[in-house]
Amino acid sequence: MSKHLLLCFLFFLSFSQLFLSSCFSFTNSTKICPRGQSLALLQLKKSFSIKKENHYFESFCFPSYPKTEYYWKEGSDCCSWDGVTCDLVTGHVIELDLSCSWLSGTIHSNSTLFCFPHLQKLNLAFNDFYGSSVSARFGRFSSLTHLNLSHSLFSGLISPEISHLSNLVSLDLSLNDGSEFSPHGFDSLVQNLTKLQKLHLGGISISSIFPNSLLNRSSLISLDLSYCGLHGRFPDNDIHLPKLELLYLNGNEDLSGNFPRFSENNSLKSLQTLYLSDCQFSGSIPASLENLTQITSLSFSRNHFSGKIPNVFDNLRNLILLELSENNFNGQLPPSIENLTNLYHLDFSQNQLEGAIPSPVNGFSSLSFLYLGYNLFNETIPSWLYTLPSLVELDLSHNKFTGRIVEFQFDSLEKIDMSVNELHGSIPSSIFELVNLRYLYLSSNKLSGVLETSKFEKLRNLIHLDLSNNMLSLTMSNNSNSMLPYIEKVDFSDNNVGGIWTWNMGKYTLYHLNLSYNSMSGFEMQPWKSMQILDLRSNLLQGPLPTPLNSIFFFSVSHNKLSGEISPLICKVSSLGVLDLSYNNLSGLLPHCLGNSIGGLFVLNLRRNQFHGTIPQTFFKGNSIKTLDFNSNQFEGLVPRSLIICRELEVLDLGNNKINDTFPHWLGAIPKLQVLVLRSNHFHGHIGFSKFKSPFMSLRIIDLAHNDFEGDLPEMYLKSLKATMNIDEHSMARKYMGGDYYQDSIILTIKGLEIKFVKILKSFTIIDLSNNKFQGEIPECIGNLNLLRGLNLSHNYLVGHIPLSLKNLNMLESLDLSSNKLSGRIPQELTNLMFLEVLNISQNHLTGFIPQGSQFETFGNDSYYGNPGLCGFPLSKRCTTDEVLKLSQEIEAKLESGFDWKITLMGYGCGLVIGFSLGCLIFLSGKLEWLVSIIDKNIHKKIRSTHRQGARRS
After folding, report:
1. Of 812, 823, 763, nearest to 783 (Cα)?
2. Which residue, 73, 311, 316, 563, shows the most beta carbons closer than 10 Å to its own?
3. Furthest C-alpha separation in the chain
């Protein structure tokens, strides 16, 4: 028995060894991938480099590491390599996942990547394949079910062969912004890939209408067509996508239509994410939205939706993100909004919502981001907003909230924006306890009180601080220099800040400091290392001019009481772009280095000071100067000829000085010059002709008044002012002259008043040649300047008639031809100038009847006095019978007659007999004055009738 057992045991042992040996042999043979595949993979590895530091998408990947670097070694089993999966039976590579692998290089059509015909899944996402395209070789993986090439810098045309991958279940080409489908390529893909569950093409240029067939693709789970250039109208058909969980259509700026329709049987019952932002959708939001019970993220921002927000949120309690910003919603917030207790992000900003903010019963304990800015909300800010434990950003700006800001209960806040409301009282102390706060905007309210700099001690993370346009005062403590170490931008403008500024906040980070419109008497320049914008205008600063720091780009101390000279050290501030010293008491000579040492300077404003001597005669070749304003000083000498090299010059204002020169005709070669002011100097001589073919083509504002120019009006220059003939305001890149930090201003005499324009509209045009010694006639070509708003030729020696061509100045608002020697009649056609508000043709030799109708009925005696030959309303002098009859004949001649002349002559004969008889009776009875008054009234009526008929014809 024991011998039998021993034999059985030996048999079993030998059989087991044989069985295990055969099993191990089989297993080892299936794990070893074919040598050709190993070589192909190793060659693929060599075709790429590993570049972590240049990798754009590392932050999106977790984990992120070079998969090919450590395990892809010759002699080892490629099926065990990172990112490689083989078939257990054949050993063929069927899955290749090299996503987030720091790969950099180009995938050529002969790449060994295409040597794996059995691939079922290929993932190359989040790499750098710049210069590669989705070529036809990708369309030959006939077994492929999953293809992900997203975020990998593919570009160029996507091969139509991609639509041959009929087994694809998942296709992700998103965020390869340089890639595009060929015409009809996207349609072919949608028609052929019928098994798709995931289709992500975000950022790929499709340039197609939305295909109707996608609305009934029942297998779809995730669809991303964001920023694809979809256009046309979104189909009005019902959507039947019962498995769809994610739908991205945002960023298609030419895609219009109403809110997508879905049937009442809840054909989108699985939808969790819906993004329609940045499109052209319009209409109202349907009540059927409440059927999306699984929805967690809704974004309709930046569309044209309107009406009230529907009260549909009772069933949408899973919502985490809700964005309806930048639409035209109105009315109050729906009551059901308080049921969204899981909300994390809520954005209703930039609509027309109004009323009070409702108070939720259960609160929003998870709410972290709340944006309600740019609406019409009013009443006080509800108390529950101050008690949200997770709130990170709060934006209530640009509303009509009233009352006080109360104490915050939690310190999670990083951003508070309550600017542009009607809040009053002091800033609550709890704000200065928010240790995580980075942005604080409370500008344009009615806040008051005294702020001590020591209060900011705990706000060490603060980056932006804007308390402008309030009634706040500030006191500075001795230890305040260590506070706000990371602050970058501070705005205390338009408050009650007084005394001397000594606060050295943000020594290494502060780049923007605005203290304008306060009452500071002094300013101590601090050793800021990054300061770029320093605005101290409109204070009470006294003493010498502070020298700006080397890093400063914008420096304004205008409207103060600074005195003394400009130090030549200012020429060493090489980064200076805008230097505004206007409206001070500065004096002395200008450093000549101002023109040729600061290469980046584009604005130099010295208006209303007491500088004397000559203007710097040399300017830096290739300079960037756009604005030179030296108005109201005591400069003398000549206009610097070197200004001709200022090719970017747009504004040159030398008015109200003592410059003695002839007309600087060579300025006509500056291509961008738009404003030229030379008024109130000692310019003299004939303006003459220019050697340039088309001088001053961009000039729109010309003020040469109060000089000693003589001779004829400069007809050549008037003919070349192209900018006053045709301006397309809609095509202008800038509506006002100037830049982001500085806008040009000018003082002009318009309608008899000196007016300061703090901004200059780029469509504003005016010519003022008054108070000179011009003679001769007004040239007809002046009527070609059809965009002219103001024309002043007064106080010269002009003769001849008022040009009939002035009727073409359709935009003219002010016309002053007074104090000349003009003669003849006032053209009746000037009554067609519908915008004319001011007319002055007094002190001339004009004769005849004053035109009536339109704007001429608003002008008083002052417009016409000093012309003894004028008669009619509004002057007290009545016109004689001959003058009335002559005007009547002129008007009749201009009217188009449709009568038959035979009938007219018959009527004329009868009328002559009757009229002659009545005339004799009136003459014999001594009632001639009565007849003249009747004719006078009828003429007035006829003139009005003529004007109306002319208006109808035009």
Report:
1. 812
2. 316
3. 174
The set of residues, in sequence order, having a beta carbon less than 8 Å from that of 760 and lying 6+ positions away, is: 651, 675, 701, 736, 737, 738, 743, 744, 745, 746
Determine contact, residues 923/931, Cβ cutoff 8 Å: no
pLDDT of residue 363: 73
Please enumerate in sequence order all residues whose Cβ is within 8 A of that of 268, keeping only pairs 6 or more positions apart, or say none: 239, 241, 242, 244, 262, 291, 292
- List of the chain residues with pLDDT < 50: 1-30, 731, 733, 894-954
Q: Which residues pair with 756 in a beta bridge?
A: 747
The residue type at 892: E
Q: What are phi and psi of 573, to 5 degrees?
A: -80, 85
Q: Are 299 and 276 in contact (CB under 8 A)?
A: yes
CA distance 559 to 433: 37
pLDDT digits 0-9 by tens, 466-502: 999 999 999 988 776 778 999 999 999 999 999 999 9
Question: Hey, is 412 helix, strand or coil?
Answer: coil
Q: Are 519 and 493 in contact (CB under 8 A)?
A: no
Lookup: tokens for 824 = 């003849």
Give the whole-angstrom CA distance, residue 862 versus residue 851: 15
**Closest of 749, 617, 581 to residue 680, by C-alpha:** 749
DSSP calls for 253-288: TEEEESSPPB-TTTTTTT--EEE--SSEEEEPPPGG
Task: Please give the Cα distance from 389 to 408 (Å, whole number).
Answer: 10
Q: Write the Ramachandran bin of 36: left for phi over 0, alpha for psi from -120 to 50, otherwise beta.
A: alpha
- Find out whether the peptide bond into 874 is cis, omega within 30 degrees of 0: yes
Over residues 710-769, the pLDDT tens digits come to: 999 999 899 888 888 875 555 454 577 766 667 777 777 765 677 777 677 777 899 999
Which residues, 6 or more positions from 246, have their beta carbon under 8 angstroms from its beta carbon? Answer: 221, 222, 223, 224, 271, 272, 273
Q: How far apart are CA 871 and CA 859, in angstroms?
A: 14
- Give the per-residue SS3 of 565-582: CCCHHHHHCCCCCEEECC
What is residue 432's DSSP assignment?
Answer: G
Strands (E), 581-734: 585-588, 603-605, 610-614, 627-629, 634-637, 651-653, 658-659, 675-677, 684-686, 701-703, 708-712
Cα 874 from Cα 213, distance rounded (Å): 75
Nearest to 388 by CA among 366, 358, 359, 405: 366
- Taking CA atoms, 557 is separated from 73, 468, 507, 540, 706, in Å, by 69, 18, 21, 10, 30
Look at residue 75 in the predicted model and tell me its pLDDT: 85
- Spatial separation of the C-alpha atoms in residues 383 and 371, rounded to whole Å: 16
State the DSSP H helix or E strand holding residue 28, giving kind and residue range, or none if neither: helix 2-31
Task: Fill in the DSSP letter of residue 825.
Answer: P
Report the C-alpha gap between 10 and 476 in whole angstroms: 99
* Strands 170-172 vs 658-659: parallel, antiparallel or unpaired: unpaired
Q: How far apart, in whole angstroms, are the C-alpha atoms of residue 423 and residue 444?
A: 9
- Cα 374 from Cα 241, distance rounded (Å): 36
- Contact by Cβ (8 Å): 898, 864: no
* Residue 482 CB neighbour total at 10 angstroms: 11
Q: How far apart are CA 759 and CA 408, in angstroms?
A: 41
Q: Which residues pair with 773 in a beta bridge?
A: 710
Residues listed for the chain: 954
pLDDT value of residue 237: 80
C-beta separation of 762 from 784 below 8 A: no
- Note whether 260 and 236 are within 8 A (CB): no
**Cβ(137)–Cβ(115) under 8 Å?**
no
Tokens of 939: 């003429």
Minimal CA–CA distance to 482: which of 463, 464, 508, 500?
508
DSSP 8-state code for residue 800: E
* CA–CA distances in Å: residue 779 to residues 370, 712, 767, 803, 804: 64, 9, 14, 7, 10
What single-letter DSSP state applies at residue 738? B
